[in-house]
């Protein structure tokens, strides 16, 4: 079953989408099967992976949600786009923006994305959900569906505010029982400018305030216009500029995410060995996705 990570920050323009895309591709380059889910009606991730005609997409995450709401069967791989760099994408467009109002009376409206993630989870090692910058029903769905939250942030005074919002929503989700085991994957500093003492001071303060409870990734993503240029071309920094200074940090963060997950799996397995028949049940083996296409 895939580890599902919600990439989220209450603030816009902090590098959530760039982080989702480039860490997703870093994971794929390290042999992982990766699905990115765009969960922002702006469609920036979808466009940034080269699917520029958002209105022409035949089947997006909004269609998935509506199929689930209406209890209509569908092929769980429907609409998933295969990117040339080895990741899959479930895209989104502005159709997702009407979601909040239209589901106001829907029972279980917080678990719609979770139901989809559980259905496709056997096909992937990692699912990354690119969230929109707010704490509405879309973000709640992402937090209910996820195993952990990854918070990209710039090193600025307001960053603490964004992290506080994430902690508060995390608390609400776990305390409500909607997802009691939701964790933090960590905080990633983005658009980092090595020259500034200011950034270092803020980073130090964030480590002091949150380092005890949230993992703070040591590698930082540098500010580089190459990330923007890669976005305009619909590819990752890996494909755009193999010498970019952003490559190593994305690779290292990907590696850390994989090794954290391997450790967790190992301790789950140990628990099963110690307590025969214990644990959360035996998960099915990852299926060949072709089997689902029939
Ligand atoms: N490390 C970086 N260096 C320079 N520009 C970046 C970097 N990361 C993201 N950007 C650019 O900054 C803008 C906002 O980033 P984005 O990832 O879309 O943020 P968010 O998803 O949080 O709104 C985009 O134009 C993106 O290409
Ligand atoms: Mg974004």
Main pleated-sheet profile: 7 strands, mixed
Main CATH class: Alpha Beta
The domain count comes to 1
Total count of strands: 7
Mean pLDDT comes to 92
Helical run tally: 12
CATH H-level superfamily title: P-loop containing nucleotide triphosphate hydrolases
The structure class reads alpha/beta
Low-confidence runs:
280-294
**What is the CATH topology classification name?**
Rossmann fold
Strand content: 5-15%
- State the separation between the terminal residues, measured CA to CA: 21 Å
The rough form would be described as globular
Please bin the fraction of helical residues.
40-55%
CATH architecture: 3-Layer(aba) Sandwich
Radius of gyration: 19 Å
How are the strands of the biggest sheet laid out side by side?
A: 3-4-2-5-1-6-7
Q: What is the ordering of alpha helices and beta strands?
A: EHEHHEEHHEHEHEHHHHH
- Bound molecule kinds, no repeats: adenosine-5'-diphosphate, magnesium ion
Write a structural description.
With 294 residues, the protein is an alpha/beta fold. The protein has one domain (3-293): P-loop containing nucleotide triphosphate hydrolases (Rossmann fold, 3-Layer(aba) Sandwich). Helix content is 43%, strand content 12%. The protein contains twelve helices and seven strands. The chain has helices at residues 16-29, 44-48, 61-69, 99-102, 112-120, 137-145, 159-175, 197-210, 225-233, 237-240, 247-274, 289-293; strands at 3-7, 34-39, 81-82, 88-90, 126-131, 148-153, 183-189. A seven-stranded mixed β-sheet has the order 3-4-2-5-1-6-7, sandwiched between helices. β6, α7 and β7 (183-189) form a beta-alpha-beta unit. α1 crosses α11 and α3 (61-69) packs across α5 (112-120). The two termini are 21 Å apart. Residues 280-294 have low confidence and may be disordered. Bound molecules: adenosine-5'-diphosphate (ADP) and magnesium ion.
